[in-house]
């Protein structure tokens, strides 16, 4: 079935450094790739997304890149701040024989040390 | 707008009991879904719906039923609760037209414990 692998599971960086989280997906029908941030005890919230017809998207300190051929996409956070500490989930959405589904990665717990 | 609401926030069940988790949204979204979140496993799709009267299975549908009689409501029923169903359950909705995907808005979650 469809699968999304996310690495690393835990990431610790110093404040001001960059953080990179990588995901791979298996379903070639996937065409929408969102990233969600979940703070402790809260609901997931979208921080950035990218569609399959775009290779890169940036929003202030956050950027996402997509390589459709390799089925890879990555989240880049620059100039990290303590409030960036959270769990980040990637996801892949598409319509295929399996239905109209979004499959999430297992998550990356990011720690930003002040 | 209240967004996506879920009730209850917390629930404790005994093995074999049944219950319904409620989910409602006031954004007129066509697409609604239920996820369970377990430590180290991310969010796993249980069931989803692309509109009133239409539902389909996700990754982990066994032990759960759903129905979608209105655009606003998407309840999740646990038929006979098992300890393996102890989890945090999130409902989500998104605008979806012509099979395009968009941001999912999540409810606050229901923390379920099955003894």
Can you give me a brief rundown of this structure?
The complex is a heterodimer of chains A (114) and B (115). Chain A is mainly beta and 114 residues long. Chain A is 0% helix and 62% strand.
Briefly note the structural class of the backbone of chain A.
mainly beta
Provide the low-confidence segments of chain B as ranges.
Answer: none
User: Please, what is the average pLDDT of chain A?
Assistant: 93
Assembly state:
heterodimer
Residues in β-strands, percent of chain A: over 45%
In N-to-C order, the SSE pattern of chain A is: EEEEEEEEEEE
Secondary-structure-based class of chain B equals: mainly beta
What is the tally of helical segments of chain B?
0
Q: Biggest interface: chains and residue counts?
A: A-B, 25 and 27 residues
Instruction: Estimate the global geometry of chain A from the Cα principal axes.
Output: globular
Question: What composes the largest sheet of chain A?
Answer: 6 strands, mixed
**Got a strand count of chain A?**
11
Task: Outline the low-pLDDT stretches of chain A.
Answer: none
Write up this protein.
The complex is a heterodimer of chains A (114) and B (115). Chain A has 114 residues and is mainly beta. In chain A, strands 2, 4, 5, 9, 10 and 11 form a six-stranded mixed sheet that branches. The N and C termini of chain A lie far apart (41 Å). The model of chain A has no long low-confidence stretch (mean pLDDT 93). With 115 residues, chain B is mainly beta. Chain B is built from no helices and eleven strands. In chain B, strands 2, 4, 5, 6, 9, 10 and 11 form a seven-stranded mixed sheet that branches. Chain B has a four-stranded antiparallel sheet with strand order 1-3-8-7, with no helix packed on it. Chain B is globular. The N and C termini of chain B lie far apart (36 Å). In chain B, 37% of the residues are buried. At the A-B interface, strand 4, strand 5, strand 9 and strand 10 of A face strand 4 and strand 5 of B.
């Amino acid at each position: 079935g469809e699968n999304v692998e996310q690495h690393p599971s835990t990431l610790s960086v110093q404040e001001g450094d960059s953080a990179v989280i990588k995901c791979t997906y298996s379903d070639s029908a996937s065409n929408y790739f969102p990233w969600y941030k979940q703070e402790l005890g809260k609901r997931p919230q979208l921080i950035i997304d990218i569609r399959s017809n775009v290779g890169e998207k940036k929003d202030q300190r956050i950027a996402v890149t997509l390589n459709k051929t390799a089925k890879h996409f990555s989240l880049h956070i620059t100039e990290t701040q303590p409030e960036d500490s959270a769990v980040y989930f990637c996801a892949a959405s598409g319509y295929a024989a399996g239905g109209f589904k979004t499959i999430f990665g297992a998550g990356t717990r990011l720690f930003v040390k002040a | 707008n209240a967004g996506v609401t879920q009730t209850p926030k917390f629930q404790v069940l005994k093995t074999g009991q049944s219950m319904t988790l409620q989910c409602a949204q006031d954004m007129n979204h066509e697409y609604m879904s239920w996820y369970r979140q377990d430590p180290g496993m991310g969010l796993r799709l249980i069931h989803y719906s692309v509109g009133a009267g239409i539902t389909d299975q996700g990754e982990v549908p066994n032990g759960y039923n759903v129905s979608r009689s209105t655009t606003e409501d998407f309840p999740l029923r646990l038929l006979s609760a098992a300890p393996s169903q102890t989890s945090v359950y999130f409902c989500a909705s998104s605008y979806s037209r012509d099979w395009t995907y968009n941001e999912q808005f999540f409810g606050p979650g229901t923390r379920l414990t099955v003894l």
